[in-house]
Amino acid sequence: MPLRRSKALVKWIYENQHKMQTLRRCSSTLRYKELEESSVPSLEPVAEVAPAHEPATKPRPQLTPDISFKFDDLQVTLAAPYQLQKKPEAIDLGFGKYFTDHMMKINYHRELGGWQKPEISPFEHLSLHPAAKALHYAVQLFEGLKAYRGVDDKIRLFRPDLNMQRMNLAAQRSGLPMFDGEELIKCITRLVQIDQEWVPHSETSTLYIRPTLIGTEPTFGIIEPESALLFVILSPVSAYYKTNSDGAVSIYADPNVVRAFPGGVGNRKVGSNYGPTIEITSRAAKLGHQQVLWLFGPNHELTEVGAMNIFVVYINEDGDKQLSTPPLNGLILPGVTRRSILELAGEWKELTVKEEVLTMQRIADLNQQGRLLEMFGAGTAVVVTPISNVGYLDTNIPVPTMQQHNPVYQRLKDTLLAIQYGHIEHPFAKVIT
Ligand code: COI
Predict the structure, then answer these.
(1) Which end of the chain has fewer CB atoms at under 10 Å, N or C?
(2) Does residue 57 form part of some domain?
(3) DSSP at 114
């Protein structure tokens, strides 16, 4: 083709490409080849409207084991030696900064019958369509659990069945596909076994496991996604929070900002509960506090602290030492650590354990009467973190957590760590290697 004609054609294509629906719809080399061979591309946009009688989405099948993915279908591609990364020093770990050599992915495509085969592959970036619902409407959820290298060098998970239950509840609430939690535990176990050298040889660090489920369907409708991706990544971690020199944190309560509300998703582990907490956490930091205490309602009820459940220890009206945490009223994440603390402490004779509503007035009164003993946060990432001060309405309420002799928070933390690192045999710990 003479140069002038070909330049004119290129210019024409450049100016008219927005009309060339057929061309725009083709992404593969093969399709481009077909186009090159065809005579004149159609300039008419192709309408992509479904027939009126077709429902927008097909009814979602119920969760039954036969539609879940299966561990038996797991396909493993190991990283080549050149893809293996150098492991960071324990001192540099921080929280969620480094990732292991492998990851797991399980695709869901409704039109292909739902869940596809689980795959373990070398760690890689995801490729997502920019219209994926997860990116626009936070159609997303996640979990957090840990693998611990025990004193006997065996690797343990801590109550992973509870993470799976919670993940399925969040999936149900988010319009994402559910699955058989036992099958995911088996797949995660295999992933951790493959990357087992990434489980730190230390009792101050662990391997954090982050299963995540996202809606990948690339359409703007706010409806159940027809496609989704469940992926699991692993990160060797040490402490989540920076604490004060005494190991405790100061927390900041602003009653004007809430984390959750009745009928919302405060009780589900979805990313949309966490992103909006960043601004106030930065504000708290500027005021000298490490975390935010989440209040709710006209009585300023305590709900959670940072990304943790909150606990208070005080002397009750009967003169007994009481451990209390707010009840699961829809605003509170049903934490695995929270539940374990209630169950473990419930067996200790010398402590009354209660789920009860706690208001800021009650905390201030207990403090004034010298009956407030301890406050602490608890969660998978932090285990148990003592609280030494609450900033509230231009005042500071000092909490004498760090002044207690044999504090409850320390006994709980020690017990949890002893189970997790295999110092004591306990049904909460599941040995996987
Ligand atoms: C966890 O404790 O696993 C959490 O959810 C904290 C995480 C959001 C950093």
Answers:
(1) N
(2) no
(3) E
**Rounded distance from Cα 151 to ligand 1 centre (Å):** 25
The overall longest dimension of the chain from CA atoms, in Å, is 99
CATH number at residue 186: 3.30.470.10
Residue 380 CB–ligand 1 contact under 6 Å: yes
Alpha helices of 17-150 — where are they, by DSSP H? 21-24, 29-37, 133-137
- pLDDT class for 245, splitting at 50, 70, 90? confident
Exposure class string for 316-344: b at 16+ Cβ within 10 A, else e: eeeeebbbbbbeeeebbbebbbbbbbbeb
Q: Which residue has the tokens 């509960």?
A: 273
Answer with the one of 239, 272, 290 that is the final residue of a domain.
Answer: 239
What is the extent of the structural domain holding 391? 249-420
Query: Is 144's C-beta closer than 6 angstroms to any atom of ligand 1?
Result: yes
C-alpha of residue 208 to centroid of ligand 1, in Å: 10
- Report the residue among 141, 233, 240, 305 best suited for mutation to probe ligand 1: largest number of ligand atoms under 8 A from its CB: 240
Same domain, 195 and 274: no
Considering the entire predicted model, what is its pTM?
0.85
CATH of the domain at 307: 3.20.10.10
| Residue 363 pLDDT > 80 | yes
At residue 228, φ and ψ (nearest 5 deg) are: -150, 165
